[in-house]
Each structure stands twice: as C-alpha cells, then as structure tokens.
Amino acid sequence: AIVNADKSDLYDVLAYIAFARAPLTRAERADAGRQGVAAEYDNRLRDFLDFVLGEYVKVGEVELDPAKLAELVTLKYGSVSDAQKTFGGMAPIREAFLGFQRHLYDSGR
After folding, report:
1. What is residue 89's DSSP assignment?
2. pTM higher than 0.85, yes or no?
3. How many other C-beta atoms lie within 10 A of the C-beta of residue 92?
C-alpha cells in the first residue's frame, strides 16, 4: 500500500498522494466536524448528526451518501415517520445531513 490509511477516507489518501498531507482518520475528521455542527444546529439535529458521525467513523464515507439517509433515520428513530414527527418532516433532517458534511472536509487543510 502507498499509505497506511485504512481508517481514513479516500479524500485523505488522495490528498496524501497529491499534496503529501498526512491523512486524518475518520475519527479525527468527525471530531473536527462536530465543532461546526455544534455551532450551526440545534440540539435535536446535533444529536442526529452525532449519530451519523459515529456511523461514519465505524463504516466510512459510504454512510454520508444521501441514499443512506432513510436507513440512518430508521436506525436512529425506529422509522422515518417517527423522525418526521420529531422534526416536523424530512426537510430539516435532509438539509442538516447534506449541510453538515462541509464541516468534515473544510478543516482548514
């Protein structure tokens, strides 16, 4: 292997190859992203996004795919309809899910 980065994203591997940047682990990237999430979202959305970040750390960037949103919502709340009751619909969840991801990859590096 060119770089030992099995706990890092493809983004970090490519940044290492192209720019010699030391790769961040997914856990390090999630911790950096949590700071932006804490500043931008209310407690309910922070709780959901923290859950998503935990899944991202365990599984990888595939958990950030918009196609995974319904599955993540179901894992966290039991069903999509239960989550909709909590948030008044899926729009706030979808917007937060897509919006928070910029905090993962905009860490000043």
Report:
1. S
2. no
3. 18
